[in-house]
Amino acid sequence: MNELTTPAPLWRRFAAATYDALIFIAIWAITAEGETLIRLALGLPSHRSLLQALVFLAGLLFFGWFWTHGGQTVGMRAWRLYVRRLDGAAVRWPVAAARYTAMMVWAGALLTPFFMLLLPNAVHIANRAGIAFTTAALAVIGLAAQKLDSRRRAPHDWIAGTETVFTSRSP
What we know:
171 residues; mainly alpha; 3-stranded antiparallel beta sheet; 6 helices; 3 strands; 7% strand
């Protein structure tokens, strides 16, 4: 049974992302706590780059597993969205890894201005306003391009060759 699908509206994507962000933050917290407990138990020094790599890998495993097993995360299922390749085929791990990596860069462009301007004491960078403006401009350009794209693809969809679609029923 082949069902008609339409490009996912931006508001549905943000709603699904909000659901997934809650799970994502919990996974990051569990990963960081697990790394800390193991490191302290073994008496090893802290390595920020190792923790960053573990947190990145945990997120990749979370999103990659859902995208390669049905094309839907928990948030996407709630909002009847799913991700697929442009030819309609299921997402495989190399595509999921590319999509997740690009998604994290895109999320950074969206969130950096808020962190740099709203938390000035937490970020000690000389050109904070310039960086915030640049990343905000990139985010606006990406959102405008997504709105103008016939398939409503986000930058991470363009890079990975995927699309996020809305359907009246889960695939």
